[in-house]
Design a protein that fits this description.
Shape: globular
Helix content: 25-40%
Order of helices and strands: HEHHEHEHEEHEEEHHEHEEEH
Radius of gyration: 21 Å
Structural class: alpha/beta
Length: about 350
Amino acid sequence: METFESLVRAEFTPKTTYLNTASNGLLPARTVAALHEAALLRAEGRPLTPLHEDVEACRAAYARLAGVPVTRVALGASVAAHTGLIAASLPAGAEVLTAEDDFTSVLNPFHVRGDLKVRSVPLERIAESVRPGTALVAVSAAQSADGRIADLPALREAARTHGARTYVDFSQAVGWLPTDADAHDFSAAVSFKWLLGPHGAAFLVVPEDFGGLSPILAGWVAGEEPWDSCYGPVAELAHSARRFDLTHALFTYAGLRRSLELVEELGVAAIRAHDLALADRCRAGLSALGHEAIPAPGSAIVSVPRLGHRQPELGAAGIQVSNRSGNLRASFHLFNTPADVDRLLDALSG
């Protein structure tokens, strides 16, 4: 009988102490094999039908992880593009509430509009800062820089009270943190972090009524009958969120399908328990060394102020972490072990 550990051991063979999933997740062996097979399809001139099937399998798998009907999931290439679509739908003068120093892809499209009122507040105050006239609240579920987790239930309640919509970036959460996209109007996530997929895919969840979005980037894949929509304007847009799809990076979805299968096989609850146990071990060890991590209870991301400068020496020693705004950031996922944590702590104690 396969266990969590045996499944993980069969899929991952890192050559370093890899503590950097918040930047890029490692690719499982099954994903690497699928990418190789996808490349051979192109190289050998075989039909690409299986790759298109992979696209829809990924859409369905993400819908299950996000807790929404598959008809609400659109596929694109980046969170920034999805944010741009939402930004383009807002009327001039609309107020957008954001968290200070959130990830740029969640923020910048609202700023470059030039005619929106973008207001930023500390993450801890975002729910209480929703007010009459706020049109949209945009925030990451878990902060990229330091792992702090937004109080999404409080935010959703405040938004409902004041008639605002919510947009949540789950890129640093989905795959290890239970994700309730149904509680929000819009949400997005990339494929290459905690979902363990290749670069080049991002998911967008929209309301059943599409939330006022206009498919301004729609091409042939956004048609109700894509293969009949290749020439001239699209005669009939897809009746589902697929009307917001961008042309699919087929190789990416071929690999991502297998990564998502692994996440579902292991289960988000088991992954979360594993990841948080390691993160808590790291926080406790850091404290014993006299280094206090930025408070982020319940997060798989650990960020330590004023230690970012040590990232190059740790990298040279085979310990992969990140320097984010001067903070040393380590992130723990299913392929990590207690020995990985101890190796980082030993290196920092020197």
